[in-house]
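Q: Could you predict the 3D structure of AT10A ATPase?
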Amino acid sequence: GLVIDGRTLAYALEPTLEDKFLALAKRCRSVLCCRSTPLQKSMVVKLVRDKLKAMTLAIGDGANDVSMIQVADVGVGISGQEGMQAVMASDFAVPRFRYLEKLLLVHGHWCYSRLANMVLYFFYKNAMFVALLFWYQFYCGFSGSSMVDQWYLIFFNLLFSSLPQLITGVLDKDVPAEVLIAVPQLYKSGQ
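A: Sure. Here are the predicted structure tokens for AT10A ATPase:
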């Protein structure tokens, strides 16, 4: 592990030393920056995101964490005694730090799985619709006539673009929550 305070971090984030700091941080399992300014927090996140091309997650509970949360790809705000500034600037909000595990491992896995399935669904839905239009042109002799009435087209898109998302969003849970918490390695299986 690496523990670095704000004064040392000011030197480590200088352009001549940031690559060495990043190389040292990559070798550690955890890096803790204590007594650092909000600007330093955001600079560390930006350094990791830009140099390592990694997706970053920032977690904060107060106004001093807002810049770090906004720089990160995904921000989580914890509502607490320090106010609601971090929550208002974040992508996700949790009431206590202990709920972070469930947010990441359970809801993150389910969301990733649902999004992947929905992308495939929309691709095939649109491919089938375009295939119908393509074959209809042979049938009508490329006259440019409309295959379906506009109302049918609206209902087609309404039916096949809204109901599947609602059903998938509510019911699709490929692995139970208890299993996802017990076996955190399942988070990587969707990727």
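Q: Anything worth pointing out?
A: Residues 100-190 form one domain.
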